[in-house]
């Protein structure tokens, strides 16, 4: 696989005020050895643009993996498919997660939805989306922090 450029590197849309989601993003920042996966909150301008191009995402409260963002081959994956897309993108031992594909998508997504309902109880909730550290800020789309 060729190394993506900043303009076509995938972007993971996530709930910016969710403690579990923020913890997952911090983990992904650490394990993405290529340092190319980028991130944007679901309420960001970038996410609104993606949703405008993919209206079926409107009102969805789910992680979204955006491949080739803004490009001709732009794709979006949500819920468990998004998590599997992240694992595929990371490669290495993370590809072992692909074994979850033997579980039908509707069952994987039911499990995802059940956890999503309690995620604030499990990981807490921020009042606002936390500001990423300067070391990783460039990996966040729409990270216009002073």
UniProtKB/TrEMBL annotation:
Classification via Pfam families: DCC1-like
InterPro entries: DCC1-like, DCC_oxidoreductase
Record-level Gene Ontology MF annotations: protein-disulfide reductase activity
Protein known as: Thiol-disulfide oxidoreductase
Species: Mycolicibacterium neoaurum VKM Ac-1815D
Lineage, uppermost ranks: Bacteria, Bacillati, Actinomycetota, Actinomycetes, Mycobacteriales
């Amino acid at each position: 696989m060729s190394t993506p450029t900043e303009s076509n590197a995938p972007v993971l849309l996530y709930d910016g005020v969710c403690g579990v989601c923020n913890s997952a993003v911090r983990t992904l920042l650490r394990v993405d050895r290529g340092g190319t996966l980028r991130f944007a909150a679901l309420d960001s301008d970038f996410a609104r643009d993606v949703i405008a191009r993919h209206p079926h995402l409107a009102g969805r409260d789910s992680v979204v993996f955006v491949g080739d963002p803004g490009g001709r081959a732009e794709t979006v994956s949500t819920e468990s498919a998004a998590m599997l897309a992240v694992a595929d993108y990371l490669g290495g031992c993370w590809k072992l997660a692909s074994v979850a594909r033997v579980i039908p998508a509707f069952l994987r997504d039911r499990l995802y939805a059940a956890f999503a309902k309690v995620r604030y109880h499990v990981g807490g909730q921020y009042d606002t989306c936390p500001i990423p550290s300067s070391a990783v800020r460039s990996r966040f789309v729409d990270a216009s922090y002073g």
